[in-house]
Design a protein that fits this description.
The chain is of the alpha/beta class. It is built from eleven helices and 16 strands. The protein has an eleven-stranded mixed β-sheet, sandwiched between helices. Bound molecules: threonylcarbamoyladenylate and magnesium ion (MG).
């Protein structure tokens, strides 16, 4: 198939978004920006269209997709009920990087939910995403735009080749804002369970007075047997082909020393905080930024870039597992396949 490419980095062109929205209605695939990561979208109510997403991504069919909406009125058509806690979260965080799991209604096809009786819903904030959903007048099913297992796309350049000829439209909206996928939650017995950490943090929920539980597989390993609340936890993700290791200590000196010790005997690239760059003179480094926001917006692109250097080892400095740091560490622990050294 020929992929049609729209560059909306400088200026949003409604006519182009309308054309892409028409394509969604016709059951076609549209790659589009959101504020978290790029999405690979199709009509969420059309089984055949949704199947094309799984095929293009090479995604396991039991790993469910998120439905993206732009208007709160459509929520009742898709889900059985919206609880008090969910209502408060919607009011506070939508549109934005929060995905909520609900019991689904019949109208939501089983291909989307991987056979589960629940469905994940999110209302993105990105203007192109919102217009695409509005003009199509449909909920858009969209996973992160990446071949399954690879880091999610945060700039179109990173994923253009992967999806060229596999999607009908690609919309370039520039570098996304956040750079990590949305927080995924499910409320059970009055407690907010975080199934995937993101920009909306545990602390954000606690500040509003809610009780929060974090699924233990978020930082730990999945043993292949336990029942998981989110099927995504079971699958390898974000992984470069190059061997990689994650190092963290609260004590920056100790962390830097350990990184150097490992780098010494390898042809390594070090992914470090910008403020540590000058401590690694003589080594190959890529700086990730200093704030958690900077690191989160750069990390997926940097993982892809470092993999292309053909090094023997990628060494990554970790961050404190707090606030947005929990989401960053969740992605890095998975990217390094749990090759994580934490120094007390
Ligand atoms: O920021 C995002 O969420 C991006 C943008 C495009 O919106 N989308 C995204 O989708 O990251 P995806 O498919 O890559 O990740 C969806 C996650 C998976 O881990 C999946 O297992 C989980 O949400 N999920 C989806 N439906 C679920 C359900 N019914 N119950 C539990 N987990 C679910
Ligand atoms: Mg994904």
């Amino acid at each position: 198939m020929e992929t049609k490419y729209f560059d909306l980095r400088e200026k949003i062109d409604d006519e182009k978004i309308k054309e892409a929205a028409e394509a969604i209605k016709e059951g076609k695939l549209v790659l589009f920006p959101t504020e978290t990561v790029y999405g690979l979208g199709a009509n969420g109510l059309d089984e055949n269209a949704v199947k094309k997403i799984y095929a293009a991504k090479g995604r396991a069919s039991d790993n469910p997709l998120i439905l993206h909406i732009a208007d709160i009125k459509i929520l009742d058509k898709l889900v059985k009920s919206v609880g008090d806690i969910e209502s408060k979260l919607i009011e506070k965080f939508w549109p934005g990087p929060l995905t909520i799991i609900f019991e689904k209604k019949e109208i939501v096809p089983n291909v989307i939910t991987g056979g589960l009786n629940t469905v994940a819903i999110r209302m993105p904030e990105n203007l192109i995403a919102r217009k695409l959903i509005r003009y199509s007048n449909l909920p858009i099913a969209a996973p992160s735009a990446n071949i399954s297992g690879k880091p999610s796309g945060t700039v179109l350049e990173d994923i253009k080749e992967e999806f060229d000829g596999k999607v009908d439209y690609m919309i370039n909206g520039g570098k996304v804002n956040i750079g990590l996928e949305s927080t995924v939650i499910r409320v059970v017995d009055g407690i907010i369970h975080i199934l995937r950490p993101g920009k909306i943090t545990k602390e954000n929920f606690e500040d509003l007075g809610f009780d929060v539980a974090i699924e233990k597989q978020i930082l730990g390993e999945y043993d292949g047997k336990e029942k998981v609340m989110s099927p995504g936890i079971k699958y390898k993700h974000y992984a470069p082909n190059t061997k990689s290791v994650l190092i963290y200590s609260k004590n920056n000196e100790k962390m830097v020393d350990k990184v150097k010790e490992l780098a010494k005997n390898e042809n390594a690239v070090i992914l470090c905080k910008t403020s540590n760059e000058n401590r690694y003179s003589g080594f190959d480094v890529i700086s990730m930024g200093d704030t958690l926001e900077e690191i989160s917006s750069n990390i997926f692109t940097i993982l892809r870039k470092s993999d292309k250097l053909n090094k023997s080892l990628i060494i990554i400095e970790g961050v404190k597992e707090e606030g947005l740091g929990l989401a960053i560490m969740n992605r890095l622990i998975r990217a390094t396949a749990h090759n994580y050294i934490k120094i007390i």
